[in-house]
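Good morning,

Attaching, inline, the backbone tokens for the sequence recovery test we're adding to the shared suite. The designed sequence is right after.
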């Protein structure tokens, strides 16, 4: 072999580094026919394609499952596992909730986004009406590309229960006993979990059906009660065409949330006034007597009466909170005295029959500017139909007053602000702000006039018609200032042998009612001794009977406000 031949590369080395066509030629040069080499190359190509398909299948099978964040905690799980997790760990069956509210795909989307944006608890979600997430703003995802929003409702609601493992597969049901411990196979454990989830779903569905039946029974009772009353003389219609009697359930549902009860019970001025009125007058008014607690809420007033020696207390409330109140009464060992009933007073027959009468009616019915919420209607109904002759109302008298304030800093913050918002005028929003009365705590230092009483309500004699009125007012300014608003508040009186009362005015200790502020369209300059004279009209909002419409007329100009 010559030196030149020694320097030449081996053909096998050439075949290993050459491109596919060269490789074919190299094989041919090694004595394999070209056609055979071609066929072999095609076979190799098919094998490569097959390997590629297998690789894609392996990639698809090994792809990570789509995970979603739980509705109630930060845990992330595969989508369908999130539903099981919500049911097992948070006691919330999303499928049952969708079925209960008859949600379509858009309703389901709004539900998920509502829960994520409002951070409601599972217990709150079960009590909320479907209207809570009806707003179209909940169509906007809170989490971008939220996998929970991609679930098909048919898969969610109509998914069949997991099939049990084959009977002959004994390994799926292996139970190992080791001392005091029992070990299950993974498959067996998962099957038991599915069975538990299904039982919980069935229980929730049963509870939902029971709740609907109770609602139907309450409706039937109310209808029968109305039929039985057809032979009675009809009551005179209220002066306003809009009354609180026919409103929706949303008002009562608002009292199912514990935050509002925490706020009211934390109001020591309010709660202690009722406690003192009941306790200090126990002997002449409560002890041995029958008491009706209207709008009993958590039953705090019922328990005050029971502790004061009442022979019987019947508490009535239409809100779901009454079920918690029953537990509270039982927890304090007062169930033998206090009986709680759920429903609307005007539509029910209380224990003791239609002719039942009570010696005392106690109720905390007051709202912003006294008359907001319209609950006074029910108190007057109870007075006319359920109070015994010579019976006692607690409280029995309320007054409404106005006072002027000067607070340019607050006025500029709420109203002048809209004249220049980062160089833009938004005066149209200023007009909207003016139309809403503001409920806030007014600093005593801002008061710039003597108070003026505009209305007194004697609960023993007034009618529903008296809750809509026009009254003159005249407030005397006590210092030179610019009057920015007129402020409304009320005082409550228990005219009992030992009198008790409290005020919600800005110069009294603060209450949860605060004060109702009617901002003027333009501040009014005044000197000490000047008076601001005018009239105030107060009536019900025609669209929302529990809200108020207030119109102030002064200096030849009128400004209307909504109290809600």
């Amino acid at each position: 072999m010559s030196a030149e031949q020694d320097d030449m590369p081996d053909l096998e080395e050439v075949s290993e580094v050459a491109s596919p066509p060269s490789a074919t030629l190299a094989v041919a040069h090694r004595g394999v026919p070209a056609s055979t080499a071609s066929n072999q190359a095609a076979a190799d190509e098919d094998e490569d394609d097959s390997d590629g398909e297998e690789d894609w299948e392996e990639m698809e099978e090994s792809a990570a499952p789509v995970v979603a964040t739980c509705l109630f905690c930060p845990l992330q799980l595969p989508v369908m596992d999130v539903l099981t997790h919500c049911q097992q760990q948070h006691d919330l069956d999303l499928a049952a909730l969708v079925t209960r509210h008859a949600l379509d795909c858009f309703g389901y989307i709004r539900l998920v986004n509502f829960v994520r944006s409002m951070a409601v608890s599972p217990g709150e979600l079960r009590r909320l009406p479907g209207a809570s997430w009806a707003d179209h703003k909940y169509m906007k995802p809170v989490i971008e590309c939220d996998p929970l929003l991609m679930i098909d409702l048919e898969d969610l609601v109509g998914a069949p229960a997991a099939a049990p493992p084959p009977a002959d597969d004994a390994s799926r049901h292996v139970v190992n006993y080791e001392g005091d411990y029992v070990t299950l196979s993974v498959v067996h454990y998962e099957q038991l979990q599915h069975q538990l989830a299904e039982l919980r779903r069935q229980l929730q569905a049963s509870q939902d059906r029971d709740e609907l039946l109770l609602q139907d029974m309450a409706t039937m009772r109310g209808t029968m009660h109305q039929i039985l009353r057809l032979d009675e003389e009809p009551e005179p219609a209220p002066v306003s065409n809009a009354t609180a009697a026919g409103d929706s359930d949303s008002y009562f549902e608002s009292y199912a949330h514990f935050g509002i009860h925490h706020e009211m019970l934390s109001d020591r001025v309010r709660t202690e006034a009722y406690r003192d009125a009941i306790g200090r007058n126990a002997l002449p008014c409560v002890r041995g007597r029958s008491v009706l607690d209207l709008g009993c809420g958590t039953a705090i007033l019922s328990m005050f009466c029971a502790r004061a020696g009442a022979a019987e207390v019947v508490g009535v409330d239409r809100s779901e909170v009454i079920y918690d109140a029953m537990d509270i009464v039982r927890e304090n060992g007062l169930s033998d005295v206090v009986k709680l009933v759920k429903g609307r007073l005007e539509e029910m027959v209380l224990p003791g029959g239609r002719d039942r009468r009570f010696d005392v009616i106690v109720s905390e019915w007051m709202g912003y500017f006294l008359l907001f919420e319209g609950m006074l209607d029910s108190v007057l109904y109870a007075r006319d139909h359920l109070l015994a002759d010579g019976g006692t109302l607690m409280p029995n008298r309320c007054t409404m007053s106005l006072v002027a304030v000067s607070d340019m800093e607050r006025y500029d913050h709420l109203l002048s602000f809209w004249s220049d918002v980062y160089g833009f005028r938004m005066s149209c929003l200023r007009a909207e702000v003016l139309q809403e009365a503001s409920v806030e705590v007014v600093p005593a230092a801002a008061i710039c006039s003597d108070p003026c009483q505009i209305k007194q309500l004697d609960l023993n004699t007034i009618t529903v018609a008296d809750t809509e009125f026009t009254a003159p007012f005249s407030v005397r300014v006590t210092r030179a200032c610019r009057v920015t608003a007129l402020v409304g508040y009320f005082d409550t009186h228990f005219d009992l042998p030992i009198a008790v009362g409290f005020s919600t005015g800005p110069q009294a200790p603060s209450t949860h009612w605060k004060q109702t502020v009617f901002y003027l369209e333009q501040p009014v300059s005044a000197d000490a001794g000047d008076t601001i004279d005018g009239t105030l009209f107060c009536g019900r909002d025609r669209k929302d009977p529990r809200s108020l419409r207030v119109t102030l007329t002064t200096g030849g100009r009128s400004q209307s406000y909504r109290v809600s």
